[in-house]
């Protein structure tokens, strides 16, 4: 199975309102809820691609129970989340039905105690034994040490399990130094890590910091990959319009599934770009449009970059 | 005991954010939750005044469970809520920490089935037997007939239980016609009911529509009461600045407690105004500042209006 780690899971709530005006009262016309946090989104896409997936991380309180109840209804995803005394955060996306624009409100995550963190490390080590690959995704809740991902990367490498890291800020900086197989920063995360806004230069810098492969997601421009086997750019056939929520998580699912299937890098990148674009095109935030995905698979262009002498 | 009815209970959530900007992403710095819906707010204040209170209405789903768990921790309030298959709504108050202004997002209530409504009517009839007074509070969730409050008023009157109605729109219009002992509209609800923005004229009209007593809450101007015993204006000694959330519910608690204690009308009004002002003064939305309440009790002015010939 593929393992995804989401230390800061969330109950993602979407509200539709006619027009959001600060300091006014609004009747919400439609409410939807789903299990969230990057690793859970990655797991959903992997399961839709036919992979067996196990999710771990933390869940607690009433929102944690709601999240797990909904997760139980997601075929192909096994719940190995650990309980915490604190309450899993909610995120609220307020979608303006007039303009389609979204206002986001993110609760703080639950405080994780040293005992809970230690229980997680034990469970993670056990789960690695049957994992074909692992994705470490998203932010850290309060109480989890900032070097957490570095430790989780080293444990995966020690178990010879390919590990992908998708986070930001200091947890990314420390995690990269532990030499993960793949990091997938977006343009902002890459610039924060390296200080450079020039994608190629920044990607090279990120790789020098320790990642075996760096796959930078550059929004509508697709992916830029620097690996031991070569350097590629992968792009969708056209600019796709829609909701980019979850596009990065779908790219991670594409890369990870391609890794466990031993696809060559160009094919992994094709899959990641097609899934990402099909997620933007989906009317439901964070899900991918399967017919669009199948069609895009044939139309993504991957070009090998010749490194400058 | 005093009975309060909240057909459309809510889990009231308050978020503090630095500055709410539409279409941006916000980190919530503080989250608080409490059982909500007007009748639950009234019950909390009645319990704080030393009355035994029973709350009924509907609660369902994960939010309903959270609401009931929190209600169980409220001393003096007995939970006689009925289960529904639907999910109790959340309300989210986003407080801007820079300005103190609040943006409100209210979910729709759960759909109530005819069987659930019928179970409520049975429970309500049983609860009336041991009630010294009843307050019918707030909006109706989908599925509850628009004439619901009229029926609940008639049942209370048939059981000789004094009944106060605090709602708006068509449910208020129909409820008033069933001759409740007291209605407590605010200026907006009164204008909507009667078509008049002149409080005295509108209050007279509301009384002619069937209410035995009309107590209009006029914000900072206090209360205007038209009753069979006389006509009074009651006002706080000064304009109070603060958060008006729950001030109307505190006024209802003041009127209802004064009713069961057989206080003369001027004393009921004094209590209602003092509680209402002490609620505006409280740093916590919907709670009242007890020292301020005690002090205000001596300083509210009640003047008898001489009806024009």
Secondary-structure map with pairings?
2 copies of one chain form a homodimer.
Chain A: E1 2-6, E2 10-17, E3 25-27, E4 30-36, H1 38-48, E5 53-59, H2 61-72, E6 77-83, E7 89-96, E8 102-106, H3 114-128, E9 133-137, H4 148-158, E10 163-166, H5 169-177, E11 182-183, H6 187-194, H7 199-208, E12 213-217, E13 223-226, E14 231-235, H8 247-260, H9 265-281, H10 290-297, E15 301-304
Parallel strand pairs in A: 1-5, 1-9, 2-7, 5-6, 9-10, 10-11, 11-12
Antiparallel strand pairs in A: 2-4, 7-8, 12-13, 13-14, 14-15
Helix pairs in contact in A: 1-8, 4-5, 6-7, 8-9, 9-10
Global shape of chain A: globular
Q: Helix content range of the residues of chain A, please?
A: 25-40%
Question: How large, in whole angstroms, is the Cα Rg of chain A?
Answer: 19 Å
Order of strands across the widest beta sheet of chain A? 6-5-1-9-10-11-12-13-14-15
Q: What percent of residues of chain A are in strands? A: 25-35%
Query: Greatest chain-chain interface?
Result: A-B, 30 and 29 residues
| Oligomeric state of the chains in view | homodimer
What is the level 1 CATH name of chain A? Alpha Beta
Which H/E pattern describes the elements of chain A?
Answer: EEEEHEHEEEHEHEHEHHEEEHHHE
Q: Report how far the terminal alpha carbons of chain A are from each other.
A: 41 Å
Low-confidence stretches of chain A: none
Q: DSSP helix count of chain A?
A: 10
SS content category of chain A: alpha/beta
Structure, briefly:
The first copy, chain A, has 309 residues and is an alpha/beta fold. The first copy, chain A, has helices at 38-48, 61-72, 114-128, 148-158, 169-177, 187-194, 199-208, 247-260, 265-281, 290-297, and strands at 2-6, 10-17, 25-27, 30-36, 53-59, 77-83, 89-96, 102-106, 133-137, 163-166, 182-183, 213-217, 223-226, 231-235, 301-304.
């Amino acid at each position: 199975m593929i393992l995804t780690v989401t230390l800061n899971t969330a109950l993602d709530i979407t509200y539709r309102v006619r027009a959001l005006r600060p300091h006014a009262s609004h009747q919400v016309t439609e409410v939807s809820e789903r299990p969230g946090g990057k690793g859970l989104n990655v797991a959903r896409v992997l399961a839709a691609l036919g992979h067996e997936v196990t999710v771990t991380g933390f869940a607690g309180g009433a929102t944690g129970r709601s999240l797990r109840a909904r997760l139980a209804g997601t075929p192909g995803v096994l719940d190995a989340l650990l309980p915490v005394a604190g309450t899993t955060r909610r995120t609220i996306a307020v979608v303006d039905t007039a303009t389609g624009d979204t206002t986001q409100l993110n609760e703080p995550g639950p405080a994780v105690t040293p005992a809970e963190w230690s229980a997680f490390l034990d469970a993670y080590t056990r789960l690695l034994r049957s994992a074909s690959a692992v994705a470490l995704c998203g932010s850290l809740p309060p109480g989890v040490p900032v070097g957490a991902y570095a430790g989780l990367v080293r444990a995966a490498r020690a178990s010879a399990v390919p590990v992908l890291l998708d986070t930001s800020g200091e947890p990314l900086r420390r995690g990269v130094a532990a030499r993960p197989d793949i990091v997938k920063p977006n343009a902002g995360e890459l610039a924060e890590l390296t200080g450079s806004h020039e994608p190629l230069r920044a990607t090279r810098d990120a790789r020098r910091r320790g990642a075996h492969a760096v796959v930078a997601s550059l929004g509508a421009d697709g992916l830029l990959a620097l690996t031991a086997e070569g350097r590629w750019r992968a792009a969708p056939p056209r600019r796709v319009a829609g909701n980019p929520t979850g596009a990065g998580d779908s790219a991670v699912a594409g890369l990870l599934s391609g890794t466990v299937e031993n696809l060559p890098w160009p094919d992994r990148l094709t899959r990641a770009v097609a899934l990402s674009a099909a997620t933007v095109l989906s009317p439901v935030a964070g899900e991918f449009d399967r017919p669009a995905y199948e069609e895009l698979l044939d139309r993504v262009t991957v070009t090998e970059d010749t490194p400058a002498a």
